[in-house]
Amino acid sequence: MQMLYDSESFVVVHMQANADDALPNLPTLVRHGFEIVDKRTGKEIYLDGSWAEMFHKQIAAWQLNTPTEEEVETTLEGYAELAQNPVLMH
Fold first, then answer.
1. Does the residue 51 lie in any domain?
2. What's the alpha-carbon Rg for the chain, to the nearest Å?
3. What CA–CA distance (Å, rounded) separates 20 from 33?
4. What does each of the 90 residues of the chain score in pLDDT, given as a tens digit?
5. Distance between CA atoms of 68 and 76, rounded to whole angstroms?
6. Residue 57: which domain range?
7. Smallest Cα–Cα separation from 7: which of 72, 60, 55?
8. For site-directed labelling of 22, which of 8, 41, 44, 75 has its Cα 20 to 30 A away?
9. Closest by Cα among 49, 47, 48, 87 to 75
């Protein structure tokens, strides 16, 4: 797990698959994803599969051309609109 972004409004965490933690002799699906937490609403969304690939491309574009905080927040806000899951502490 790697925190990629933390602001007053959002947190973005990259959840990386770790095949070494898999149980022996059991099939594993090694995937990664991104969790986006909207601090304003207390909701989160987990992106995996094609959504994660699309978001990863966005991050790669940001690495080539450093965006403003406003540009990042606007992009994250678009994803956060899809968030349905409340953030739960456990």
1. yes
2. 14
3. 17
4. 889 999 999 999 998 876 555 566 666 656 789 999 999 999 999 999 899 999 999 999 999 999 999 999 999 999 999 888 787 754
5. 13
6. 2-17+30-86
7. 72
8. 44
9. 47
